[in-house]
Design goal:
It is a single chain. This protein is of the alpha+beta class. 32% of the residues lie in helices and 19% in strands. It contains 25 helices and 37 strands. An 8-stranded mixed sheet has the order 11-12-14-21-18-17-16-19, with no helix packed on it. Helix 5 packs across helix 7 and helix 14 packs antiparallel against helix 22. The longest helix has 28 residues. The chain is flat and about 95 Å long. The structure holds 4'-deoxy-4'-aminopyridoxal-5'-phosphate (PMP). The site of 4'-deoxy-4'-aminopyridoxal-5'-phosphate has 16 residues, from helix 16.
Length: 907
């Protein structure tokens, strides 16, 4: 029967609204949109009133004013109305950020805490979803493709009788969670029941595991958010999650036999099987440790290590301690004397697929000549031996059993002692293996403590994933607790952060909610201290790629020979000036160390030349960190901590043809923006007009056609000079042209270059006309101690060589266009504009495409999520709602594809 939901809403609740039908299994639900939004629920025929009353009472008990209209009747069916919760269902949300999962977990904990004091007769019910009653599935195992797996899950099912009991929501599945950004809300309290409280989290966990590459980590975020579990509940959680997935797949199998044509039954079935299979491969004790850690408990109880009764090898006192961390080594060395490789060190050389990206070394390495004897440090019994012959594996390996723990010895000379052999501390137990054999590693002993072998025997891993570092370093504590060698410990990321907070100024900001400790760069990638590579899509300084070997070599060579100042003759500075001026009609160069110094000098040149003081700048501009440059940077002087505009500064509106008053479809937009500069010139006599040729800090803006032509003309007519800040956009990034002002068909009087021209080496330049240079040459010496030194110029020359040889400007054009097309193909209501040229692009996020309300917090969220997914981007623009893209120019199409795919997922 057709239900006129609008009419019902009007008649029963006096609400004027249009209605859209929602999916529902038994009841008829409608989304009502009027001056407010509601959900109208018309219950199935014969629905028990107590069932609806239970839900209303629960919502009231939870203190949420969800109820918008009380229980009524229409045509013999119960009707009620709730406030609409805006957002998307978790099931329809592509990216489940750690923060979202933690918030969801926290929400469940709050709900359960409140429901602990909720009583309603209807919650005492026999539900097939109650995990205490899960054993009904035993009768239907034969309907499933893998009854043995379900049997194993049933055999693991924990006894819940002694655990906390309470009323729970009972069905926090991904269709009952509404997501808004990183916030979550629970809907549909129709499956509430009284049971063991931990079942709430188990049910939610089962759904969070769906469609995840790493379901355990995803669940651990949920558990961390929930947090308030007793140890016995944590112990029950993992088997309960498996049990819930088992109930789900058996229920689907059963219902398929009852209703063979119902497509809804099989939705999610494959994903549930996949999650069940993936989770069932994880050792339950490992999952238990991970969940304990997530709840703030130690993964394993405390352990008192025994001290070695005997040295494990001779001559260890003189051993050198090596630094094989990500920032220091890319391959395992072959030291020529005894040396130690550290425990809990992230390393880059576990690159074979078998390591699955694991980087954290769990043992201690002792490098020694093949054949060097190894002694038992403690009494023990040989527990397991093997020859793991694969390349980069342990080779011959032995595990000794001690009281309450094990020790592992890898990369041995030959298959060692037989299982069951009792050994005494100090007894020779094996010898160091040589190459090839023992995994083909440089000869060394890998020595590791293992408190729980997780039934892995000699396959127990020697390296762990960074995400499980805490858990695995608890299972495998520091071997030096036993060996007691003098090994200095490395500074952790947390210690670096603390040191920085102690000694560096507070307004030196740190990117991202979760700070990064970056220790290595290569091409378009940056590596953090755990060895995780990040695709760098916004660092415009390493123009030709991070740590480009040509630039590195040029700097190393020159600094080894000479670095001094410009008061002596040297060819590098002259060569570099020749190369730069060959690209411009301007002939005179000044060299400095930073773009700030260069802009500062540009202002001095303009003032010396014109004898005037005033400067015209664009709104939202940033030109550098010196006092004068802060004074001409509205982004700063009008921003937090800013002291406002000085009288000699004149602000022209930012020619933003997306957000500004004159839009992209207006062919006169350039002229109209330029007219504002003319208006300033009616009452001001400026020394200079300074602008980025494509305002980057202003939000990756492409100036409308004709703008600079008209502005430069009127500024020059008024006696001023035109300065192009090319710090971000110059040097080939734009693809179409080498400098930004070329896009506008103009030539500046002073060109300022910085950041990318030294590829990270401090180098900046000001290039100008002979006339302006002559005005500046007024008797006062110009000198910058480091500016233009031979090393900096060597870096600059190498950058130009690489740009040309690797045809990077062309690459910027091709890959930039490709990326732009990819970005424009993303359909998302928040993407208001995608613009730019070459590898200088901006994605402007808005809340509303009509009002252009900036989506600033959303942009920050997207950038943080990109970081979580291994991509580094940032925001810019006066509203911080423009995602800026300006990667090293060696960016490839596959990097562009990856960026587009991940952005689409996380936005
Ligand atoms: N000009 C522009 C356009 C810039 O973006 C910056 C730095 N963000 C500077 C000048 C100043 O550069 P530096 O910090 O290297 O002095």
């Amino acid at each position: 029967m057709q239900i006129d939901a609008s009419r019902i809403a009007k008649e029963l609740y006096g609400v004027d609204a249009t209605a859209t039908r929602l999916n529902g299994e038994f009841d008829d639900n409608f989304h009502l949109k009027g001056s407010s939004e509601y959900i109208l629920k018309v219950m199935r025929e014969g629905c028990d009133r107590a069932f609806v009353e239970m839900q209303c009472a629960a919502m009231e008990h939870l203190g949420e004013s969800r109820l918008a209209g009380g229980i009524r009747e229409h045509d013999g069916r119960i009707v009620w109305m709730l406030h609409w919760i805006p957002g998307k269902l978790l099931a329809d949300t592509k990216y489940h950020s750690p923060r979202l999962l933690r918030n969801f977990g926290h929400l469940l904990a709050l709900t359960d805490a409140k429901l602990a004091t909720f009583g309603h007769l209807s919650t005492r019910r026999e539900l097939k979803w109650d995990l205490k009653r899960a054993f009904w599935i035993r009768d239907y195992l034969h309907l499933t493709p893998d009854p043995a797996l379900i049997e194993r899950v049933l055999a693991m099912a924990p006894d819940l009788t002694t655990l906390r009991h309470s009323v729970i929501h009972g069905d926090a599945n991904d269709h009952n969670v509404v997501v808004n950004g990183d916030e979550a809300a629970l809907i549909d309290f129709g499956d509430m029941h009284y049971t063991a409280t931990v079942c709430e989290l188990a049910i939610a966990s089962a759904y969070v595991a769906l469609n995840k590459k790493d379901p355990l980590t995803a669940i651990s975020h949920l558990v961390a958010g929930y947090h308030s579990l007793e140890p016995a509940e944590i112990a029950a959680l993992f088997p309960l999650i498996l049990l819930r997935l088992a109930v789900s797949v058996v229920n689907s199998a059963h219902r398929k036999t009852l209703y063979p044509n119902d497509p809804y039954i099989t939705i999610g079935e494959a994903a549930a099987w996949e999650a069940l299979r993936a989770l069932s491969k994880i050792h339950p004790r490992l999952a238990h440790y991970v969940f304990r850690q997530a709840c703030g408990l130690k993964p394993l109880e405390d352990w008192t290590p025994p001290k070695a009764a005997a040295p494990i090898m001779d001559h260890l006192d003189s051993a050198v301690v090596l630094d094989l961390s990500v920032g220091n080594a890319t391959e395992m060395p072959t030291p020529d004397s005894v040396a130690i490789g550290r425990y809990n060190e992230a390393r880059l050389f576990y690159t074979e697929p078998m390591f699955e990206g694991r980087t954290i070394h769990l043992g201690l390495d002792i490098f020694a000549a093949p054949g060097t004897p190894i002694f038992a440090p403690l009494d023990g019994t040989v527990y397991a031996v093997a020859n793991n012959a694969k390349r980069l594996d342990y080779g011959p390996v032995m595990i000794l059993r001690h009281e309450g723990f094990f020790t592992l010895y890898g990369h041995l000379a030959e298959t060692p002692l037989p299982i069951g052999t009792r050994v005494k501390a100090g007894e020779e137990i094996a010898r160091v293996g040589g190459r090839p054999g023992n995994g083909d590693w440089p000869p060394h002993l890998h020595f590791q403590i293992i408190r729980d072998l997780l039934d892995l025997g000699c396959d127990f891993p020697g390296v762990a994933a960074a995400g499980q570092r805490e858990v695995f370093t608890t299972i495998s504590p520091d071997p030096n607790l036993i060996l007691q060698l003098p090994i200095p410990t490395a500074r952790t990321k947390e210690e670096t952060l603390a040191g920085r907070r102690e000694h560096l100024g507070g307004n030196l900001s740190i990117s991202y909610d979760e700070p990064l400790k970056i220790v290595r760069g290569w091409k378009q990638f940056l590596y953090d201290d755990t060895g995780r590579p990040f695709l760098d899509v916004y660092n415009n300084v390493p123009l030709v790629g991070h740590s480009h070997p040509r630039v590195v070599e040029a700097v190393q060579k020159q600094i080894a020979v000479l670095n001094t100042n410009t008061r002596y003759l040297h060819d590098n500075i002259v060569l570099y000036a020749e190369r730069l001026t060959a690209k411009l009609p301007l002939k005179i160069c000044y060299f400095l160390n930073s773009a700030s110094e260069a802009n500062e000098l540009a202002l001095r040149l303009a003032r010396a030349h014109t004898g005037r003081e005033d400067i015209i700048v664009l709104d939202a501009a940033y030109h550098g960190n010196t006092s004068t440059l802060i004074d001409i940077s509205p982004y700063k002087f009008n921003g937090p901590g800013g002291k406002g505009k000085k009288p000699w500064v004149h602000i022209a509106p930012l020619p933003d043809d997306y957000r500004g008053p004159y839009k992209r479809d207006d062919p006169q937009a350039g002229s109209k923006y330029a007219r504002h500069v003319s208006e300033i010139l009616e009452h001001a006599t400026p020394a200079a007009f300074i602008a980025e040729s494509l305002p980057s800090v202003g939000g990756q803006i492409v100036l409308p056609a004709g703008y600079l032509k008209e502005v430069y003309k009127s500024v020059r007519e008024a006696g001023g000079v035109c300065i192009a800040d090319e710090v971000q956009v110059g040097f080939g990034r734009l693809g179409k042209c080498f400098f930004g002002f070329e896009m506008q068909g103009v030539m500046s009087d002073i060109v300022v270059l910085g950041k990318p021209i030294g590829n990270g080496f401090p180098l900046a330049a000001v290039i100008t006309t002979a006339e302006i240079a002559a005005s500046f040459d007024n008797g006062m010496e110009f000198f910058s101690t480091f500016g233009g030194n031979p090393v900096a110029c060597a870096a600059g020359l190498a950058v130009l060589d690489v740009l040309e040889e690797e045809r990077l400007q062309e690459n910027a054009l091709v890959v930039g266009d490709y990326l732009l097309r990819g970005l424009r193909s993303i359909e998302h209501e928040m993407i208001g504009d995608v613009r730019g040229s070459g590898l200088f692009l901006g994605i402007e996020l808005v809340r509303d495409r009509e009002t252009l309300g900036p989506a600033s917090t959303e942009a920050s969220r997207v950038v943080n999520r990109l970081r979580e997914r291994g991509i580094l981007a940032g925001t810019d623009g006066p509203h911080h709602n423009v995602i800026k893209l300006r990667p090293p120019l060696c960016f490839r199409k596959e990097d562009a594809d990856r960026f587009v795919a991940v952005l689409e997922e996380v936005i």
